[in-house]
Amino acid sequence: MRLTDRIAIVTGSGQGIGRSIAETFAREGATVIIAEKSPEAGQAAEASIRDTGGSAHFFKTDVADPRSVEHLMRRVDEQFGALHVLVNNAGVSHFSPIDELTVETWDAILNVNLRGPFLCSQAAAPLMRRSGGGSIIQIASTRALMSEPGNEAYAASKGGLLALTHALANSLGPDIRVNAICPGWIHIGGDPLRPIDHAQHPAGRVGRPQDIANACLFLATDESSFMTGQRLVIDGGMTIKMIYAD
Q1: Complete domains list, the chain, with CATH
Q2: What is the DSSP string of 125-143?
Q3: What is the pTM of this model?
Q4: Annotation says 154 is catalytic
Q5: Please, what are the averages of pLDDT over each run of 10 residues along the chain (246 residues)?
Q6: Of 72, 154, 183, 238, which is the active-site residue?
């Protein structure tokens, strides 16, 4: 129970990677705040964690809206009086040819993926300091490091998130540590995986949400107390594999 008596916010935790992080934190003893925009997904995650004996509270949150973020942090302060961990996981993606990418779509993606983590981190910092310090974990992407066509807005938002990570680490330290995780291909459902999908990874398989949750758990605990401003690439080795055409 490595997170006993810790209060943790996980944004976008109604499904996928975020939900796996929230469930892992709850199993380790944390009180988890499900900061999720979708009431249906947020309530389902809250119920699932409570059904297994964990502590979870759903707070409807739009991370791109400053007022919504302020409301989230105010409720956490009023209800729990402390905050120790913030996982900025909420994100959206959109892939299209560059000549079809509109300014509206560009803004929508950066507002959630980059402005959201900034707003949440800025609002969380005073509460974390009053709690004796804390850990902020950004969920970026290997697309911050490598790309393919039609990836501009998402790649830019995640690249900016890595820069925001080291900037915040300098601004908020030493009380608050800030690190980022860059997931690669994490299978969260959809089309069945093929043998070739696994084989192209040096680790021999496609990633699972629990792979990212395990890394978040490490960054949330004192086991990573000498680590800040860093990025962890968790991609089964895909970014270190050279690819040549046949």
Answers
A1: 7-240 (3.40.50.720)
A2: HHHHHHTT-EEEEEE--GG
A3: 0.97
A4: yes
A5: 97 98 98 98 98 98 98 98 98 95 98 98 98 98 96 97 98 98 95 94 97 98 98 97 83
A6: 154
